[in-house]
Amino acid sequence: MTAAMQTHQGGCHCGAVRFEVALARGAEAQACNCSICGKVGFIHLIVPESRFRLLQGEGNLTRYAFNTGVAQHLFCKTCGVKSFYRPRSNPDGWSVNLRCLDDADAVEAHVTGFDGRNWEAHAAELEHLSRETAS
């Protein structure tokens, strides 16, 4: 991680699942309108694999996959919250829910809309986010 990165911790509602993620100031975040993200209010912070670490609760996660099965949606078995998952657009990285960070209000992220309802037409817009140089 570079000096510009700041580590943030977060987790699910009940605290059984905990993680940390390294983010750059002004990180790109997306508010997606697809069928699942829109319903749960997930705000994506997509990061490379190396900038995400599960701290606890691996055994308390359950998976859900739909459509192509590439995206691995991970939910806490106890409270049902999806605080992060392996996204279809970036299967080499992780998407963390900004709203699940302990200090979400203090995170300097630039949130834009993402047209996930028309995912096939827009998926390439997200590919750069799991590269090591992405914010």
Short structural description:
The protein is mainly β.
Structural write-up:
This protein has 135 residues and is mainly β. It has a single domain, classed as Metal Binding Protein, Guanine Nucleotide Exchange Factor, Chain A (Beta Complex), CATH 2.170.150. It has 2 helices and 10 strands, in the order βββαβββββββα. The strands form 2 sheets. A 7-stranded mixed β-sheet has the order 6-7-8-9-4-3-10, with no helix packed on it. A 3-stranded antiparallel β-sheet has the order 1-2-5, with no helix packed on it. Strand 1 and strand 2 form a beta hairpin. The longest helix is centred in the first third of the chain and has 4 residues. The chain starts with a strand and ends in a 13-residue tail after the last helix. The relative contact order is 0.27. The model has no long low-confidence stretch (mean pLDDT 91).
